[in-house]
Design a protein that fits this description.
Length: 137
């Protein structure tokens, strides 16, 4: 498990560095000067060698220093944005889990009671189709 997570984190880091575009541009106005661009690159650590950027990325990942937002609320800590929405996310997750558990158990009991009959076939078909939906949890 740890090697898989480490591999995924490494792939995400290098793919984000090799993608076209300039990360510093997200923090700058269109008419920014070269000095402003270099200041943002220094602030983001993009002026460092790639291996130093990688080790800083790993250290920041584990210490919860996930940077500043460049989209939602410019300059706000990402961690603060996540925690601001965490209670509502947990509320939605718990209610969805309760509803899905209730419906799943109920459907399973009906399917077991009517094994290999039309009700069972419909429930299994619905479960198969339902399992193919994207889950963004």
């Amino acid at each position: 498990m740890v090697p898989v997570v480490f591999g995924a984190v490494t792939i995400v880091f290098f793919m984000s560095r090799w993608m076209p575009g300039d990360p510093a541009a997200a923090y700058l106005p269109i008419n920014a000067t070269i000095e402003q661009k270099r200041a943002i690159e220094h602030w983001l650590g993009l002026d460092q060698p790639i291996y130093i950027q990688y080790f800083r990325y790993i250290a920041d990942l584990f210490t919860g220093n996930w940077g500043k937002s460049s989209r939602i609320s410019l300059g706000t800590n990402v961690w603060d944005l996540i925690w601001a929405h965490f209670p509502r996310t947990m509320e939605l997750t718990i209610f969805a889990l309760l509803i899905a558990s209730f419906l799943g158990i109920k459907a399973g009991l009906i399917s077991a009671k009517h094994r290999n009959k039309p009700k069972d076939t419909v429930i299994r078909g619905a479960a198969l189709i339902g399992s193919q939906f994207q889950y963004f949890g």
